């Protein structure tokens, strides 16, 4: 009985641990089935790279409601000045975390080829995006 009570208390604490991060899935310009998370898009103060999340499917956000069959949520770091991007993998947990050493990833040419219209939006609005100190 004591274990059950402790388990229920743990679940309650996890459920009230804090508000979920906002997500605002918008259609990627020029792409019928691709969306980007406008609330996630931000500029890293250290490197100047823009971090972007995109997904294919329908914008059912928040993340927990994104149907697994609708495609993965992919994360990219964009270097608009050189038209290069870094693949940061996929966001399977919804914690919006970045992998360790993410700034040192291989830069690949052609932002539009990876992030599509969302990459263009990110580069065009870079000066208005939130600038944060990312880990």
* Helix/strand order: HEEEEEEEHE
Helix content range: 10-25%
Please outline the major beta sheet: 8 strands, mixed
Residue runs with pLDDT of under 50 for 5 or more positions: 1-19
SS-derived structural category: alpha+beta
Q: Into which percentage range does the β-strand content fall?
A: 25-35%
Number of helices: 2
How would the global form be characterised?
globular
Quick check: average pLDDT?
A: 79
Distance between the termini: 41 Å
Describe the structure.
There is one protein chain. The protein has two helices and eight strands, in the order αβββββββαβ. With 135 residues, the protein is of the alpha+beta class. A hairpin with a 6-residue loop joins strand 1 and strand 2.
List the helices and strands and how they pair.
Blueprint: H1 2-15, E1 25-27, E2 34-37, E3 42-44, E4 50-56, E5 73-79, E6 84-90, E7 108-109, H2 111-124, E8 131-132
């Amino acid at each position: 009985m004591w274990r059950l009570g402790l388990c229920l208390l743990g679940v309650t604490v996890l459920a009230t641990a804090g508000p979920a991060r906002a997500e605002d899935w918008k259609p990627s310009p020029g792409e019928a089935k691709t969306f980007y998370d406008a609330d996630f898009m931000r500029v890293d103060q250290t490197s100047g790279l823009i971090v972007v999340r995109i997904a294919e499917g329908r914008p059912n956000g928040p993340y927990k409601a994104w149907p697994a069959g609708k495609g993965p949520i992919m994360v990219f770091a964009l270097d608009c000045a050189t038209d290069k991007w870094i693949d940061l993998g996929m966001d399977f947990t919804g914690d919006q975390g970045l992998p360790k050493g993410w700034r040192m990833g291989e830069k690949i040419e052609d932002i539009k080829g990876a992030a599509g219209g969302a990459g263009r939006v990110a580069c065009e609005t870079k000066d208005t995006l939130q600038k944060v100190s990312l880990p």
